[in-house]
Write a structure and sequence with these properties.
Chain lengths: 284, 91
């Protein structure tokens, strides 16, 4: 604003001072875009061409890689598995965390802070270190090598983050709203679902998308808990395509590109909510 | 500043616990000869990978490693948090 009222010389100086920021942004954009460009370009090349000239556009556009990924690599099966696990985890996480965040953020409870603290501790602790205990637990529950077990594990892992977001957003909703509803005789569940929840749509969008991304991309837990080839999720399936002696990189990259599409879709659906949440301030 | 502190801590922890990329890049055996293993991939190999001595998994050893790693990470995160702020950090 001040630059508009000053002389051209100081205005030039002002723009020069902002130059490093712009350079950093351009550099960052390149870092993000270049791998994406390589991925998309390489999908349409033969494996030989990927190695001979990685950066150029493909000489002959071919979709044989996608066909291979879909047919030979049981890609459709992995996709269905990933979708099932991700959707189940998102639903479980959102429902459980909304129900848990309501009392913890709307009422002043003596032990509320401690319970919330235990929830938030889950963000700091590295979950993977508990994986052998989880293995034993799932074995005891007969949930090993099943997609339900995987969804339960992912829900447990994503709950701390979801609680952080949801409690912070729920605290920002004015108390008068639910007091008015309570005077009108609404039950607590009714207050939560028809009064508070509509205010929380940005937060739920953020939680859903972040949970979806984390679950969809996770390699570690499916690797441990799933043995049956028909129940593997996408990352494990794609990692399995990389052979020890030769790898059809065109197929692998096509698989990766295909696996990224649903996430783009999820983001597009929730993009408006996420941007609203960001501008309102993610953390209170 | 509190936001910066918690962001730094979380980034450090996440980077230290990175598994996927390391695992995919080093291949099934941790080539060459498991020398590229990080602590987390080593933990995985000991517990589930059955590439331990004589092909059996060493759950006990991996649990010990996990406990040590946890203590180490708690120590690191305390240091990072203290570096930024003494009191006001609530993640």
């Amino acid at each position: 604003v001040t630059a508009l009222t000053t002389t051209p010389a100081t205005r030039g100086w002002w723009m020069l001072r902002r130059l490093p920021g712009w350079l950093a942004l351009v550099g960052w954009t390149l870092i993000v875009v270049l791998p994406l460009y390589l991925l998309v370009i390489s999908c349409f090349k033969s494996t030989a061409q990927i190695f001979s000239d990685p950066l150029s556009l493909p000489r002959t556009w071919t979709i044989i890689n996608f066909a291979h990924a879909w047919e030979q690599a049981r890609f459709a099966q992995y996709m269905v598995n990933s979708a099932m696990v991700s959707l189940a985890s998102i639903l479980l996480t959102v429902v459980l965390c909304v129900l848990a965040a309501y009392p913890l953020s709307r009422f002043t409870l003596g032990w509320g802070r401690w319970v919330l603290g235990v929830f938030l501790l889950g963000i700091m602790l590295p979950v993977r270190l508990a994986s052998s205990e989880m293995f034993t637990l799932l074995k005891g529950l007969n949930l090993l090598d099943s997609r339900i077990g995987l969804a339960v594990v992912f829900t447990a892992i994503r709950i701390p983050f979801a609680m952080l977001i949801l409690t912070n957003f729920m605290r920002a909703v004015p108390k008068e709203i639910d007091e008015a509803a309570r005077v009108d005789g609404a039950s607590e569940l009714r207050i939560l679902f028809s009064v508070i929840l509509p205010q929380l749509r940005p937060a739920i969008g953020v939680v859903a998308v972040f949970t979806g991304i984390a679950v969809w991309n996770d390699l570690y837990f499916p690797l441990i808990f799933i043995f049956d080839n028909a129940k593997k999720t996408l990352p494990v399936g794609i990692a399995g395509l990389v052979g020890q002696y030769n790898t059809d990189w065109g197929m692998v990259l096509a698989g990766l590109a295909l696996s990224a599409i649903p996430l783009f879709g999820l983001y597009l659906v929730a993009a408006r909510q996420i941007q609203r949440a960001m501008s309102e301030g993610m953390l209170r | 500043m509190p936001a910066l502190a918690s962001l730094t801590t979380l980034t450090v922890l996440n980077a230290y616990n990175q598994f996927d990329i390391v695992y995919v890049m080093e291949g099934v055996g941790g080539d060459p000869g498991r020398s590229t293993d990080m602590l987390v991939t080593q933990f995985y190999r000991l517990a589930f990978g059955s590439v331990g001595s004589a092909g059996i998994t060493e759950i006990g050893l991996s649990l010990a490693l996990g406990a040590l790693l946890f203590l180490f990470l708690a120590f690191i995160s305390i240091i990072v948090l203290r570096f930024f702020d003494r009191r006001q950090v609530t993640v």
